[in-house]
Amino acid sequence: xxxxxxxxLIIIGIPVFIIVGCLGxxxxxxxxxxxxxxxxxxxxxxxxxxxxTDDKPLEIVSKKTYGNVQGFSENFGFIxxxxxIVGIGMDRDKFYKKxxxxxxxxxxxxxxxxxxxxxxxxxxxxxxxxxxxxxNIETKNVTEAVVSNINKLRYAKDNKYNLYDINANKNIEYxxxxxxxxxxxxSNWSEDGNYLIRQQNSNINLYDxxxxxxxxxxxxxxxxxxxSLQNFYSRDGKDIYFIGEQYKDNDLNNRRQGIFKVxxxxxxxxxxxxxxxxxxxxxxxxELPLIGTIRKGNLIMNGxxxxxxxxxxxxxxxxFDGILNNSEGLYVYDVDTRKFYNLIxxxxxxxxxxxxxxxxxxxxxxxxxxxxxxxxxxxQWNLYAAKINGNNLTDxxxxxxxxxxxxxxxxxxxxxPDSKSILYFTGKNQTTKNEFTFMDKNEVNIVTxx
Length: 450
Prior knowledge:
Layout: H1 31-34, E1 42-44, E2 60-66, E3 72-80, E4 83-88, H2 92-98, H3 108-119, E5 121-126, E6 132-138, E7 152-157, E8 160-165, E9 170-172, E10 187-189, E11 195-200, E12 203-208, E13 213-217, E14 239-248, E15 251-263, E16 269-274, E17 278-279, E18 285-288, E19 292-295, E20 299-300, E21 309-312, E22 317-324, E23 327-334, E24 339-345, E25 358-360, E26 366-375, E27 378-389, E28 392-400, E29 414-415, E30 421-433, E31 436-449
Parallel strand pairs: 1-24
Antiparallel strand pairs: 2-31, 3-4, 4-5, 5-6, 7-8, 8-9, 10-11, 11-12, 12-13, 14-15, 15-16, 15-17, 18-19, 20-22, 21-22, 22-23, 23-24, 25-26, 26-27, 27-28, 29-30, 30-31
């Protein structure tokens, strides 16, 4: 099969991609689970709360837009205040001269070669001088964005995983980190940067970077199943959050999604957030343009370019983009009261239903998000910042209007480790030829908060 061409003729603001289900065995119904209502309790906030401020308002110190990074293809994030890791491919004129056929007319070999040139390699980029230092890594093989506080990059080479130490500018060999990347591509760093977490063989694999050790954490399949929606969070490798599904009375058509937490030492699983059961049999699904068939019910949406969910207030709150009681938007779940609070509603676009991309600051105090605005009868994407204030978002600031981030849709916004700055790239003067799209100008954008 041809490798999908990211960054090509893709509408910015990735359409909602919802995992319909995952295979599994029978489940154990707990007292906690039985008490979940078939209609979640949602507190519908007045959107005017977004304009409220407090005694410590969100202040923007500076907004800078400058430069032109020819061939820019991916944003992997800050490594310090003046450097970033980026993907840079062939520039437009050279690319169009070399590849004269449309992507859909190419053979598998030709399309793979074209995408390799389009995406290019990974570089350390000075954000002031635009000097670049090659890391000898192909952009397509990088599996996660940089975690700024540890400055290590995970990538695939020769069908195996490798780690690159950005500070030392060298590859790190780990004997116990050689699983086949094709069977366990998706993974997440722990917040302290000491562990990598991924799904493997329907269980959780915890890799201790410092001690070069793997640990398999068994997940009771009779209780909960992990599917294709793989997203993990852990502060320090002890308690690991994951998305799973449970089945009612062994009926694979009657299922519910939830967020669970497993202790890496005891393997004890706690239910953190549970949606009501929904029957996904025929007649209980909807069709969305550009997306296809998705099931009805309450669930978390899976966007490909942003956080799927965020753990706030030491696990007392969870923020996510999803569907509740047939209303789509951004929500926060209060674990203690088991109530959902509506933060931002989705805008009905002419094109399709879209997820609402968001990125939470490392200190959990701020959020960056994108949403559609209909202006002059046309859809445009605006970029916003807001404070996370209990069960609300307040003090919203408009950062950019009608932004075009084509070329870095998988890692659009990156936070600095001190939570004071964000980095994103925008494109101007779009050119599309032979189903490949380039920007004449790829600008660096840095917004700094007080």
